[in-house]
Amino acid sequence: MARINLLPWRAERRKLREREFYMQLGMAFAAALVVLIAWSYWMGARVDNQNDRNTYLQGEIKQLDDRIAKIKDLEKVRAGLLQRKQIIEQLQANRSQMVHLFDELVKTIPASARLGSMKQSGDSMSLDGVAQSNSSVAEYMRNIEASPWMGHVDLRKTENTHEDQRMPYTFGVDVKLNTPSTDGPAPSSSVAPAPASTAAAAVPAPLATAARAVSGSPAPAPAGSARPAAAPAPAMAPPSTAAAPAGAKP
User: Fold this and answer.
1) What is the DSSP secondary structure assignment for residue 223, as one 8-state letter?
2) Alpha-carbon dihedral angle through residues 236, 242, 247, 248, given to the nearest 10 degrees
3) In angstroms, rounded to a whole number, what is the distance separating the alpha carbons of residues 81 and 215?
4) C-alpha closest to that of 127 among 95, 94, 148, 150
């Protein structure tokens, strides 16, 4: 005999499926919530770590800024010291310049001119004075340009004021100063011996004959003739110029 179930099993199965669906939905929501919370904590940790790194970098940047400021101050001090060093070297190099300039001023000025004032500014000098004529001024300018310590010269003014009968012309020149590398070649202490022909030509014949007679040296051979080689004569002591003592025999 067949058994027939008249209960609403379809509704119960539907309710069971709905219950399973809601349970799965709740589990998915709970899992999503857990993932979201974990992700938020992880992102917060990353943000805090990045903030810590930024704080550390800002501190390092501040220290570097302080060091850069100190380096700039040291560079300013270094530039000042270098400038002082250059000034001292320049003064050391030009300490004898004024002595040479005054010496050159005395050497270059002609007798028909006279200086009234001078002013030096760096590597230029302004000279003012009086002269007898314009030719005296031109001669003075040529002498200045020929000097090793003074170079190019520009005529600033020249006029006849008739204030002085001897030197009626007043002039003003601007001179460019030079610094030669060396004052000049050092004079040699040794003098090169003169050629024999020049020495013989400079001495008169009678004096040469008398000197040969006293020293006993042979007469010089004429030019172009062969002269046999001879042993060098012993050097003779020069005659003493001191006075002989009283009672000594010659």
Assistant:
1) T
2) -10
3) 73
4) 150
For residue 10, which phi and psi values (nearest 5 degrees)?
-65, -40
| 3-state class (DSSP) for residue 102 | helix
DSSP code at position 240 = P
Residue closest to 144 by CA, chosen among 90, 130, 95, 136: 136
Report pLDDT for 87: 86
pLDDT band at 122 (very low <50, low <70, confident <90, very high): confident
State the virtual CA torsion across 79, 84, 90, 92 in degrees, nearest 10.
-140
For 220, the token pair is 């010089």
Tell me the pLDDT tens digit for each residue of 66-114.
Answer: 999 999 999 999 999 999 999 888 777 777 777 888 888 888 888 888 8
- Report d(CA 89, CA 69) in Å as an integer: 30
Cα 138 from Cα 150, distance rounded (Å): 15
- Write out 138-190 in H/E/C secondary structure: HHHHHHHHHCCCEEEEEEEEEEECCCCCCCCEEEEEEEEECCCCCCCCCCCCC
CA end-to-end distance (rounded Å), the chain: 194
Residue at 191: amino acid letter: V
Provide the whole-model pTM. Answer: 0.40
Tell me the one-letter amino acid at 141: M
How do 113-121 and 150-160 pair as beta strands? unpaired
Neighbouring-strand partners of residue 170 = 130, 159
Domains of the chain: 109-177 (3.30.70.2830)
Residue pair 105/125 in contact by the 8 Å Cβ criterion: no
Burial of 126 (0-12, 13-18, 19+ CB in 10 A): middle
